[in-house]
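Researcher: I'd like a structural prediction for the single chain below. Treat it as a standalone chain; there are no partners to consider.
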Amino acid sequence: MTSAGTALLHSALILIRMGPSPAMTPGCGRDSNAPYTPSPMTRPAIPERLDRFMARANAIYYATHDPFADFTTSPEISQVFGEIIGLWAAVTWQLLGSPTPISLVEAGPGRGTLMADALRAAHRAAPGFAAALQVHLIETSPRLRAAQAARIPDATWHGDLSTVPDQPMILVANEFLDALPIRQFVRRGTGWTERFVAAGQWAEQPADAADVPAGRIAAEGDIVELNEPSRDFIAEVAGRVRRHPGAALFLDYGPEHSAAGDSLQAIADKRPVNPLSLAGSADLTAHVDFADLGDVARIHGAGVQGPAPQGPFLAALGLFQRTERLARNRSPEQALALVEAARRLAEPTAMGRLFKVLTVSSPACPPLPGLPIG
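Model: Treating it as a single chain, here is the predicted structure.
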C-alpha cells in the first residue's frame, strides 16, 4: 500500500513514451519508429515491460480512486505517528545546525494527515523549528492535492523533487517508495529473462545480465526485483543533502537485506487481487529494497542509518508515552482504541517488524534519533 500516487503520473508518462523494446515494436501497418502508447484502460496484446505497466496502472488508479477506501496507512491509524515524526524533524533540524529557512518536504502525503499532525506538534513543542520551516508536498494527484490543501493550506505543491527549493531540507516519505514501478528478472539456466505483461498474462523476454542487480543469490525460476525510480529518488535526495544541511526519513515495508523474491501485490476493494488485473483497477506495490537504496545513498556521498524495524524506532521516539498521555482524557473505549493503534504500529506481529526505517543525511550530520548508529 502507499500513501499517495506521488510521482506516478510523471513516471508513467516517461515510461509509456519509451514504448516496448525495439525488438517488439510492431512494424506491420505502422511506422516502426513511432513510440507504442497503449490505451490507458486496455490490456495491450503487445508485451509491456512490468515497470511501464505498473506506472501506467497506478497513474490511472490514483487519478480515478480514493486509495484510502482500499487501505489504511500509519498516519490514519494514530495521530501520534505524525506527531512524533514532527518532533523527530524538529530534533533533526537542531542537529543540522538549525538552518533557516528549511524545507519540510513530504513525498506521498496522502490526505495530508501526517504533515498536519507533525506541524501541530512542532508548533506546540518546537516553535523555533515551526517558524523556520516551509512546507512542500510532492504530489501529482489532483484529488489528493485537494484533500491536502484542506489540512495544510500554506503548503507548496510539486510534481517531483526537482522543483523544491535547493536549500536545507528535511524530507519525510511514508509508504511512498513501495508504489514506484519495479522491473522483475527471472533466473533461467545460466542467464536471465525479464517479465513483461501481455493481455493480462506474464510474458518473458531475454534480459541483459548487466541490468540485474548484483549480488543476489537466485536459483532457477527465482525472481530478482529492481526499482529504478526509487534509486533515482534516493540519489537525488543524497545529492541535495550533500549540498545543503539535510536529512530524509523513509518508512515503508520490505526486508532489511536484499534477496530474491516476487513481492508484487495488488489491492482493490480492501482485498488482494491479481496484479495483472485491468490497469488502474487496483493499487500495485512491491517491497522496498532498503539495503539497495542505502547503498545508493552511500555511493552518492550521504550518511545512512538503518534499515531498522519501525517498532523500536517509534518506541524510542515516545509512541507509547504519548499515547498514554492522550488516553488519560478519553473514554475507556477511546483510550483502548488509542492503545491498540499504537500496538498495531509497533508490535512485531503487526507493522513493527515488516515496516522498516531508513535515513539519508548530510555527511557531517550527527546520528539521528531513534535509529542505531552504523
